[in-house]
Structures are given as C-alpha cells and as structure tokens.
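Figure S4 source data
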Amino acid sequence: MNEKQLHALVAEFAKNLKTPEDLNQFSRMLKKITVEAALNGELTDHLGYEKHQPRNGKNARNGYTSKTVICDEGEIEIETPRDRDGTFEPQLIKKNQTRITGMDEQIIALYAKGRVIGLWIAENEGRSSGRMC
C-alpha cells in the first residue's frame, strides 16, 4: 500500500468519525488489528511456515486465546494465537501481560510507511518489557 492509497483509506474512515469516542474506538480497532497481525507473524516465525501452508514438523497452529489488555485508549480484546505443543511464547504481548502502552506512535508509523509486519517484528525482537517505545 502506498501513501496515496493510505490517505484515501483514512479519508474514507474519517467520514464516519463524528465524536471523540468514534476516534477512540477507531484507534482501539486499529491497535487490535495491528497487534493480532504481529502476533500471527510471530507464530508464523515460530512454526516456520505460513498459515494454510503444509507444516514443517509436528507442531501446528491451534486456534486462539482471548485476552483483554489495557492500552492508552482503554481495554481491547485481542486473540492470541496458540500452537499445539504450547511452546509459542509471544514477545509483543507476553503471556499474563495485561497492559500495553506506548504503541500508538509505532502503529501509526507502521501504517503510514506501509511497512511489512514482519519487518516491524524483526526490528522489535529482543525487547524485554511490555513497553514498546
């Protein structure tokens, strides 16, 4: 997606934003979609194959677990992917982590620059805290 396409998409969404709560809800939805895509990218990296592709070994995707996390805009419900062996340890939002802060700037930059989720994950590997800034 290039910058022109992104501006057109944002303009279309902006037509429906009438109140501060609408903007807050849109921001939470964007954060949810981005976090879930990043978590799925982490699982793909962990398993070594893309979703709907033949698996490389015994371990496989095994659905999702719902999790409520608190962010700058309030609570969001995310779906964390699971693997059959239970060896997947998400790094973006770790197991038992209930709070994420400081992600707004990165999510906006991610969409604004049209960057690939995998590249963003690669840049943020090894971060030990839940704070992403």
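Figure S5 source data
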Amino acid sequence: ILNAVDFDDDKEKLIKSEKSFKNWPNISPSPMEMIKARWCRTGRITPDCTSCLYCGIEYHDWNANDNPLDIHQRLSLFCPFARSSHRMYSSSVPTKPIPEVFTKEKIANAATEPNSKLIATSASYYSIPEHRQTSLNTFPGGLPRNAEEIIRSGLYCVGQSTKLRCYNCRRSFNNIHDCPSGEINVMHRYQSPNCSYARLLPTQSETTSANIGDLCRWCLTNSKEIAAYPCMHLTSCTSCSKIVNTCILCDKKPQSFFRLYV
C-alpha cells in the first residue's frame, strides 16, 4: 500500500526533522511548517536544502510564499507521507506548573551545583533592576551610554565614582562601562567566572546566534511563553510546545516544559 505510514517510525522521523531545523536560515516557511510536511534539513546543496525522510525527494532555495506540504505532494506523488493524513503527535514532553518543575528539593540541590541555572533569591537592595538604575544617577558625567546593559548585567554604581559592583557576586569593576556595546556581560563573566547571575545571561554572540526575539522559534508567529527544563531555554509558544519533543536551541529533549511569565 503506497500511502501506508508506520507511525511508530514516524515519531522518530518527526524528532529527527525537529533537530535538523535548529539553525534554519529562513523566516518563511517556518521550521514548524517544514516539520509538519516532514522535510528534514540536510544543507547538502544549499543552506536550506531539505529532503523527505520517507521518499528521499530533495528541495532547496525555499521562497517565503512556498507551502512545504504542497511542494512535497507535487514533487513526490507516491510518497507515503505526502499521501497520508499528515498526522501530528502530541508532544512526549509534559507541560507542568512551575511548582512541579522547581520543587524545593531541586532548588536546594541547585544551590550546591557550580553551574546551576537556578539562582537563589537575593536580599540585596540592588537585586531589583529599578534600584540599580537609580544608583546610576550618581554616575560621573551623567547616565552611561550603555546603562541598560549595565543594569541587565546586575551591576550598580558604587558611590560617586565609575566603579560598578555586581549585586550577586559582589565583585567590583573599574571602567567596565567603557566596554563596546554588547560586551558588558562578556567582561562580567570573564572577570567573575563563578558569578551565577552573569552566567545566566547570554553574551552578544550567543544572543545573535540564537536570534533571540519575542517570537516562538518554531512557528515564528506566536509569542514565546514556554520554556524547557532543565536547559531553561525560552523558545516556544503554547501551540508548538504541544507538538515538539526537543529544544530548538540545544537539540536536547527536555524533562518538561513550563510557562514562563515575563
């Protein structure tokens, strides 16, 4: 039967397809559109070169208006997937409430791990971004040009000087405000490698490579609101999290998803 699909095998192909679109170069068609049509990115001929995991048909040079499923059906009339009902599965990764993801035991254990992605609540006055912003009012010569990056990196102004201090690791930095745009936290992490707060923030290169924005990395349409545990990557909208089985940034299968309120 030409249009029969082994759906147990299809689940494995679905996961393989997901992982292949980690660095998909196009905005449209989106990774989710490509996955639903069971294309798998190979990069064999061009960066957006893809092939079908069922029939092996290949296609590249995708345009913004292309419909991946229509093209698949047109190019491969006898592909078992293209002729099937195009079934999509529920994700094998559960979405849980935050208290179920971050139990007291997990938080306690994380506090003893040097590379933990959880950070304990701080009693420091300057743990609040608004307080760090207010401290910069005393900065010599007025507000530094990269004040937003300084605040984001957990730094506040010490007295009436250019010395900045991290509320978390308590390390002081001289003239870090002179760093080029996007390099404040790079220097913070370099000079204070054990600062758990600085490690949680992406460097400029990580931000660029991850193409961080407000949109779901899978469909590039809805807002991101679902994060993965334990990698803590915020990449999915609610709809896509019900389908995908992996994290599009690190390729790993999460233990669970949780809604992040930002």
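The beta strands are 39-41, 50-52, 58-59, 155-157, 163-166, 172-174, 226-229, 234-236, 256-259. The longest strand covers residues 163-166.
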